[in-house]
Specification:
The complex is a heterodimer of chains A (134) and B (317). Helices cover 43% and strands 18% of the residues of chain A. Chain A is α/β, with parallel strands linked by helices and 134 residues long. Chain A has one domain (6-127): Rossmann fold. The chains are: A alpha/beta (134), B alpha/beta (317). Strand 2 (34-37) of chain A pairs parallel with strand 3 of chain B.
Chain lengths: 134, 317
């Protein structure tokens, strides 16, 4: 049997809006992936621990609070610490309300891709399938 | 690769356990090596199955039980199964959402599994995943089934102790005398006991249990409000009492050997089905057989017997 793609859909930080996260989770599910939803209000440490225990291929974070420049680099840092390596075999994605001028900073800090409002779920699924790291 | 994973399991590295589960679940070539070592490494964990209908509060109860187990100084591994889509094979594994307080506790390890088309309330490889958890050496292993209906009783083949969770208002007393899931409980829990009808449901359950006169172990019924942690220490006490009873009465060995049989049976089925189908596919028998079926010249049961005869039974010539 081929290995299933596993995705952690994470909600880091304090924003309480997860309609978008649930829509994305559903899209990954419909693409045949196994999706673990973190629930609201998770710390980067918690998300990294979940990603390791669930052995996911993808960590997809949804943030609408504006705290992405603080939280997302921290998620990447925690993942490296939990995995004990700087070479992550996990694809790190971000979505939500993230201004275009922040994207470069996030990419320099370990986020592989950023998807803003209006991105089709199909585009996200296709990107994910094409860019898995293991 | 498997050597690295096995070494990691010995050193109790979480990432190694996580990767071992992935390899076993996906039927990797590394899986047999890892499982062989896991069988040698495994100690004695208390394996507790947790089952019940969707929405009765199993995941919340697991979160609460984790808290009590940790307060008592024990480690705990959790295996939570949720259903896969029969159409796409995808799944939403949502049991983590209820795990609120102990996510980064080093004494807790939580893994979500998708059922992947398996219908007994668990997934095809759950038994093997339990073995990996045993090798890691948790004091307790909690196995949460998918939300079950009435007949998903596979958990009894793997757990030492089965906890059946119910919530008030989900059925009358005819439900309580039906066969199936209510027969497999070693401990019963009426959760959401702050709702009306909780006491009535406890009474109905106890009346049902009283119909059996010769219990060796009469399953206790515990009321809980898992979201507030109420009744959960008492529930864990009852589970511990049941495990102690099994030990004292030598029934534990019986249950352990039952789980070996279940694992063996599951593997035999998988191996034989794979063997027959791949042989029949490669020599063209399968295509021919399907054609015969569609033309009404034979029927599936007869064909299955025929295939077993052809490929499995060695002739003496």
């Amino acid at each position: 049997m081929e290995r299933k793609i596993r995705v952690l859909v994470g909600k880091p930080g304090l924003d309480g809006h997860d309609r978008g996260a649930k829509v994305i989770a559903r899209s990954f599910r419909d693409a045949g992936m196994e999706v673990i939803y973190s629930g609201l209000h998770r710390t980067p440490e918690e998300l990294a621990r979940m990603a390791v225990e669930e052995d996911v291929d993808v960590v997809a974070c949804s943030i609408l609070s504006g705290a992405h420049n603080t939280l997302l680099p921290r998620v990447v840092e925690c993942l490296k610490k939990e995995k004990g390596t700087d070479e992550l075999d996990v694809l790190v994605l971000a979505g939500g309300i993230i201004p275009a001028e922040d994207v470069e900073f996030l990419k320099q800090n370990g986020v592989d891709e950023v998807f803003g409002p209006g991105t089709s779920t199909q585009e996200i699924v296709e990107y994910t399938k094409a860019n898995l790291k293991r | 690769m498997h050597n690295q994973v096995i070494q990691g399991l010995r050193e109790k590295k979480r990432a190694a356990l996580a990767r071992a589960v992935t390899l076993v679940e996906s039927g990797s070539e590394h899986a047999p090596h890892i499982l062989e070592q896991a069988y040698k490494l495994k100690g004695r964990s208390k394996i507790v199955g947790i089952t019940g209908s969707p929405g009765v509060g199993k995941s919340t109860l697991v979160d609460s039980l984790i808290g009590v187990i940790r307060e008592r100084g024990h480690s705990v591994g959790v295996i939570a199964v949720d259903p896969s889509s029969p159409f796409t094979g995808g799944a939403i594994l949502g049991d983590r959402v209820r795990l609120r307080s102990r996510t980064t506790d080093d004494g807790v390890f939580f893994r979500s599994l998708a059922s992947r088309g398996y219908l007994g309330g668990l997934s095809r490889h759950t038994g093997e995943v339990i073995t990996l958890f045993e090798a890691f050496g948790f004091d307790y292993i909690l196995v949460e089934t998918v939300g079950t209906g009435q007949s998903e009783v596979d958990i009894m083949r793997y757990a030492h102790s089965v906890l059946v969770v119910m919530a008030p208002g989900l059925g009358d007393d005819i439900q309580a005398i039906k066969a199936g899931i209510l027969e497999i409980g070693d401990v019963f829990c009426v959760n959401k006991a702050d709702r009306p009808d909780a006491d009535r449901d406890v009474a109905v359950l106890e009346a049902m249990l009283a119909l059996n006169k010769d219990w060796q172990w009469k399953p206790p019924v515990v009321k809980t409000v898992a979201s507030q942690g109420k009744g959960v220490p008492e529930l864990l006490d009852k589970i511990d009492e049941h495990l102690e009873f099994l030990k004292q009465s030598n029934l534990l060995e019986e249950r352990v050997s039952r789980s070996y049989l279940a694992a063996l049976e599951a593997n035999l089925r998988r191996e034989t089905v794979d063997l027959i189908l791949s042989k029949a596919r490669s020599d063209g028998t399968l295509a021919h057989a399907l054609k015969q079926l569609s033309e009404g010249k034979t029927y599936p049961a007869a064909l299955a017997k025929q295939l077993v005869k052809t490929y499995l039974i060695r002739r003496n010539d």
